[in-house]
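step: validate -> pass
step: tokenize input -> pass
step: predict -> running
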Amino acid sequence: MKYARLSKEQLEELHEEFINFLAAQQIDKQEWDLIKKHKPEVADQEIDVFSDLIWEGVLTKAKYLEHYSKNYIFLFSCDEVYMQTIIIKTEENVDFLTRNGLEWLSDNLFTNTVEVQKGHKVFPGDRNEEIFELIKQGAILSKGELFEQMISILE
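step: predict -> pass
step: emit ->
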């Protein structure tokens, strides 16, 4: 398995897609029920393959990610070859995971209490695997509004 198995909730959300996936392999509901009952390891393999297909599609389309922690915000913009990064950090006693912390940031962005750094790098390995690692570390996919706002402010 290249990525991670989808959770039960995710699989339930993608029920129709999973049915189509099985149908493409000429597996109907009756046969699927037999596989689950008598060959659970084969059922697990099918779920793993489906999970990787879904992840691959999501990661290929991924353009922006955000990762928030107490004193840091990491913003990422990913294209095919490289990733741009904006890091916003403070040593102040605020929490960017809260609404108050984000409001504080808005009020103090251009003060000495907030440091903003820009960077970029070429993906050292497989682009989608690199993005998946960020997600495993807590990054979330986004529409990139904050990244684009910050780029326009910084340029």
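step: describe -> Helices lie at 8-13, 15-24, 29-38, 40-61, 99-108, 127-136, 145-154.
step: cleanup -> pass
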